[in-house]
Specification:
By secondary structure, the protein is an alpha+beta fold. 33% of the residues lie in helices and 22% in strands. The chain is elongated and about 70 Å long.
């Protein structure tokens, strides 16, 4: 018999998270490592677990994720987005609470491109009169 698996993709900044939810005891594995070992910061762990907390599904699903691109904070945000979208696959009843807290909205903020004649996107070279 086919095992129940729910898939979703989450994105933030330059990070992408491919997330699979399976019924289980609540373990979260990212790139083959445990969540706490992978992110290394308690605040980011709490961020990733938020969709489960607001939908009262803590400990009901195992998460297996593959994170690519960006940094640790961006990947944690992408993981939260992916978990929230995967929970929608489980039940559409979670949509109002996830939508209200903004977990389903892809954060559009990304780094601005560097402009020619400048050091960075907006930072000019130091002015010197002589």
């Amino acid at each position: 018999m086919e095992e129940l698996r729910y898939y979703a993709t989450g994105r933030r900044k330059n990070a992408t998270a491919k997330v699979w939810l399976t019924p289980g005891d609540g373990t979260i594995t990212v790139n083959g490592r445990d969540l706490s070992e992978y992110v290394g910061r308690r605040a980011l762990e709490i961020l990733v677990r938020q969709p489960f907390d607001v939908t009262n599904t803590q400990g009901q699903f195992n998460v297996t994720a593959r994170c690519l691109g960006g940094g640790i904070a961006g990947q944690a945000g992408a993981l939260r987005h992916g978990i929230a979208r995967a929970l929608l696959e489980v039940s559409a009843e979670y949509r109002p609470v996830l939508r209200k807290l903004g977990f389903l909205t892809r954060d559009p903020r990304v780094k601005e491109r560097k402009k020619y004649g400048l050091k960075r996107a907006r930072r000019a070279f130091q002015f010197s009169k002589r």
